[in-house]
Description:
Number of helices: 7
CATH topology: Nonspecific Lipid-transfer Protein, Chain A
Distance between the termini: 30 Å
Amino acid sequence: MRPFVPLLLVLLALSPEAFSRGVRPSPASTGQSQQPAASPQDVFDQMQHSFRADRAKGQHLRFQFNFADPQGGKWWIEVNNGACAMGRGTIAHPDVSFSCTGDDWVRLSNGTLSGIRAFFTGRLRISGRQYYAHELDELFP
């Protein structure tokens, strides 16, 4: 039974609520009304603004995102002891990688596509140390 615990944590992190909390800053923190992300670039811009350095102390994580389709591309995030860097391209030795279309990533972040449904239907693939996938919600509330 223990091998399924990390997978369950990943699936919980991939719920629409987790994605919608995890990639958009709150309106109160920005002084603006929330706008749904329209592109992967928007999602990562919002994640940059919502990063919680206090929750990242002692964390050393590398995330890779591989998106297919015209909105696609490759993105990475590196969290290193309270600091966050992100950009386009690839990162060496990611702890966890997410693969889907850019459109699906936007839908996941906006809460219009269930992470659980995307995972079980093959629209979202997670490889590497899947346990770390849930850290996105903690680091980017």
